[in-house]
Design goal:
eight-stranded mixed β-sheet, two-stranded antiparallel ribbon, NADP, DHFR, Dihydrofolate reductase, alpha/beta
Amino acid sequence: MTKHPISIVVAFAKNGVIGRDGDMPWKLSTDLKRFKALTLGNPVVVGRKTLESFGGKPLPGRPHVVVTRNADFIVEGAETATSLTDALKRADEIASATSATEVAVIGGGEIYRQAIELADILHVTHVEAEIADGDTFFPAIDPDVFEKGEELFVPAGEKDNYPTRFVTYRRR
């Protein structure tokens, strides 16, 4: 479908929680730095609600394609698409035009549920905690579909609520 690998960049707790009340249920400065390093310069595909959760504006340094059912939704500095398939196609075109290395899917829950079927790479931050009151979850990673690759344990830094493990999974 796309010329460039499709990656998912996500952080989730031991019980699969990725969000609570439209926000992340943790503070992880270490993870935010990794997120920036993985996405900078690459087109990102993001759901409308997730875009709104980080202020309603695109993150700097990465072209955005926002998935929304509202065909009239406009956000300055981003393109929109009414389906994940259309968003990935457009992001791939942007990747070709900008010499990007991959297309990054950055959330939220519904977008991840659809994208995991198409993703080539999962860049996962495993948050070493159970989050009891989360309301948005990441789907289970099927080990028959994705092979666990590089793994790095990261103790909680001074601006992190929890320790994490950075793991890259690749489609078999």
